[in-house]
Amino acid sequence: MANPHYYRLFSAEESRMVDADTIGKFGIPGFTLMELAAAQASRHISESVSFGEEITFFCGKGNNGGDALAVARHLAESGFTVRIYFPGGTDGLSEDTGANLKLLKKIQQKGTQGVVYVEKVALPEKITSPVVVDGLFGTGLSREVEGVYRDAINLINKSGARIFSMDIPSGLNSDTGRAMGVVVKAEKTFIFGTRKTGHYTGDAFDYCGERVFCPLPFPSFLYPDSHPIRIFGLPSKPCIQYRLDALRGEKRPRHKYENGNVYIVGGSPGLTGAVVMAAKAAWRTGCGSVQVFCPPGLASAYDAHLVEQTRTILP
């Protein structure tokens, strides 16, 4: 049975906390977590592309770049040619990213089934590889993408290559799903450890492509004790859970309508599933009342699936 936390949405800060606590309090090294994530992503990529194809990697200085480098090493060992660019250079790499670069250089020197090129230029004039792996930015991005990184993302998007992103497409805000200027448009995004709200909100559906969840061994007791479903809105209007907390204040609500009221309008013959799922999800967040508005012909379909939620028949 899958860990129920795998189906929750987390903020970037919550994700960093459970990752940091798994390393610092539980004792699984960060490098080990990175290796487990990379093993899963590299397997998916190798199964998705033709054997031996050249794959170009664009790596940042943080751990997102480290994830990409670990994937590059796995794929090189499996017989792929990997070409690696660092748009921002290699000074100031995170500890685990630097360690992965050293490992790649070792197999570059000693030989492997594939071929490893660690490029000395920041960006190529043109991407010739049929496959690109994006490891520029992870969940820590909080401002507009500028300079050479903006150029790198534009180059990736214009390449015509198949694009795979590590954890989240570079340029996408992991809390709001907002495009931070330019965003890598991925065919697949490999989500590591926790699903972030930005994978499912805002502009996410334009950039994430297929989302492939790669679980990591985070202990259940380290997950933050927040509500199991988090629906994120605009920055000025945070997720439904926070809105409910504000409505409740310091005391328990005296009436269900003090806990929020959700109205859902929709559905047509044969297409009632979305309304049913939305109504059940809204109820599970703790809303006091969920009301579904539907035409007369669909009332029986909703009655069969919705018990707590009320139905209002539209004329």
Structure at a glance:
The protein is of the alpha/beta class.
Helix proportion: 25-40%
Number of strands: 12
Shape: elongated
The rounded Rg comes to: 22 Å
What percent strand? 15-25%
| CA(first)-CA(last) distance | 45 Å
Poorly predicted runs: 227-251
| Major sheet description | 7 strands, parallel
Describe it for me?
By secondary structure, the protein is α/β, with parallel strands linked by helices. The protein contains 9 helices and 12 strands. Strands 4-3-2-5-6-7-9 form a 7-stranded parallel sheet, sandwiched between helices. The protein has a 3-stranded parallel sheet with strand order 10-11-12, with helices on one face. Strands 1-8 form a two-stranded parallel ribbon. Helix 3 (63-77) links the parallel strand 2 (54-59) and strand 3. Helix 3 (63-77) runs parallel beside helix 4. The radius of gyration is 22 Å and the shape is elongated. The protein starts with 8 loop residues before the first strand and ends with a strand.
Please supply descriptive tags for the structure shown above:
3-stranded parallel beta sheet; 315 residues; elongated; alpha/beta; 7-stranded parallel beta sheet
Secondary structure layout plus pairing:
Layout: E1 9-10, H1 12-26, H2 30-48, E2 54-59, H3 63-77, E3 81-85, H4 95-110, E4 115-118, E5 131-135, H5 147-158, E6 162-166, E7 188-192, E8 195-196, H6 204-207, E9 210-214, H7 240-248, E10 261-265, H8 273-284, E11 289-294, H9 299-305, E12 310-313
